[in-house]
Structures are given as structure tokens and as C-alpha cells.
């Protein structure tokens, strides 16, 4: 199988179902940003972090492939002529969202309470988490914009929203595990 098809040479690409759209279409921006997020999460997973964190990040990466497949499917062609769904994979579920929430709550319970915003950084691994969080928020914004034009499974939006919270908490937890001081943002006062 050749990696290049030349079908996109004129600036269009095909969604699942065959519909061709411009490569700058908001649907492409949405799932392309989810793909970018997945790569950033892979970068976090490649760091010297606990096996427990790595295993859950692999689970998240799997779920993000599902999110990408959902977003890459033309809603008009999501159901085949025989009545079966085009995507024959498990969708994003309430359980997937609950797993993120449980991980967030577990990490939060072991951390000192937040009294201020914290500045991203302190350690390369922590910075990777903050970058992934920002990319996740962008994916969420783009998917929300897509949802204004064509309906998107609400669980996808919920998952992306919760995932950015998870990545923030992971950054805080890794700061603790790496013994990195969180730098509080304390706004300068006007004179």
C-alpha cells in the first residue's frame, strides 16, 4: 500500500463515507487538532513517569482515535444503506468520561488546594502536559464550532472538556511527584 494517494493534491480530502471537503474545513481542523493532541500525549507518555500514568495515557490515546474517527465521519453518511453504522467501534461513553473524572478526583485529593493560578512550567514533563492541555482546549473549541454547523456527539464535547481538566491535574500531580515547586501567578498591583 502506498502512503501517498495524490487525491489531496488540489486541497481537498475525503471524510469517512467518501465526501470530499476542503482541507481547511472545520471538520478537518477538529479531527486534525485531536490528532495533534494525541501526539502531544504520546510525548508525555514517553517521559519518565509512573507506569500507572502511562497506562491511562495509552487508554486516552485510544479514545482520541475514536474521537477522531467520529469527527472524520460525514454525518450524512454515518449510517450505511443496510442500516448499520459506518463506524463499527465503541463510541465515547459515560464510563470514559467517568474514568477521567475519577482520575482527576484521585489526583486532586493528593494535592494541596489551589489558591492561585499556576504558571505553566517548572519541568519539561510538566510543560508537555500544559501544552497538551492547551491543544485539547483548541480541539474542544473547534469541535464546538463544528457542532454549531453540524451536530457532533455530545459525549465527544464532554470528553474533550474533561480531558483538558485531566491534563491540568496531571501537570500538577507530576509537579508533586517530580518535587517541582509550582509558581503561583500573583498579579502585579497597579500603583
Order of helices and strands: EEHHHHH
Radius of gyration over all CA atoms, rounded: 19 Å
How far apart the termini lie comes to: 67 Å
Class derived from helix and strand content: mainly alpha
Number of extended strands: 2
Main sheet attributes: strand count, strand direction, barrel closure: 2 strands, antiparallel
What would you call the shape?
elongated
Strand content: under 5%
Number of helices: 5
What's the arrangement of strands in the largest beta sheet? 1-2
In round numbers, the mean pLDDT is 93
Helix percentage range: 55-70%
Low-confidence stretches are none
Structural overview:
It is a single chain. α1 packs antiparallel against α4 (124-149). The chain is built from 5 helices and 2 strands; from the N terminus they run ββααααα. It has 191 residues and is mainly alpha-helical. The chain has a two-stranded antiparallel ribbon. Helix content is 56%, strand content 3%.
Question: What secondary-structure arrangement, pairings included, does this model have?
Answer:
Layout: E1 12-14, E2 20-22, H1 26-45, H2 51-71, H3 94-109, H4 124-149, H5 154-177
Antiparallel strand pairs: 1-2
Helix pairs in contact: 1-2, 1-4, 3-5, 4-5
Amino acid at each position: 500500500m502506498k502512503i501517498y494517494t495524490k487525491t489531496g493534491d488540489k486541497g481537498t480530502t475525503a471524510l469517512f463515507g467518501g465526501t470530499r471537503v476542503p482541507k481547511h474545513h472545520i471538520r478537518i481542523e477538529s479531527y486534525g487538532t485531536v490528532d495533534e493532541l494525541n501526539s502531544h500525549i504520546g510525548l508525555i507518555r514517553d517521559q519518565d513517569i509512573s507506569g500507572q500514568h502511562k497506562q491511562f495515557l495509552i487508554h486516552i490515546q485510544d479514545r482520541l482515535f475514536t474521537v477522531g474517527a467520529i469527527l472524520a465521519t460525514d454525518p450524512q453518511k454515518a449510517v450505511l444503506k443496510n442500516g448499520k453504522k459506518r463506524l463499527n467501534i465503541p463510541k465515547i461513553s459515560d464510563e470514559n468520561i467517568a474514568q477521567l473524572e475519577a482520575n482527576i478526583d484521585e489526583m486532586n485529593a493528593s494535592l494541596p488546594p489551589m489558591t492561585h493560578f499556576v504558571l505553566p512550567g517548572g519541568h519539561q514533563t510538566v510543560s508537555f502536559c500544559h501544552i497538551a492541555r492547551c491543544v485539547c482546549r483548541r480541539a474542544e473549541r473547534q469541535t464546538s464550532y463544528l457542532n454549531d454547523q453540524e451536530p457532533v456527539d455530545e459525549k465527544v464535547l464532554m470528553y474533550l472538556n474533561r480531558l483538558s481538566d485531566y491534563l491540568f491535574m496531571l501537570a500538577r500531580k507530576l509537579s508533586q511527584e517530580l518535587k517541582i515547586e509550582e509558581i503561583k501567578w500573583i498579579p502585579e498591583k497597579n500603583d
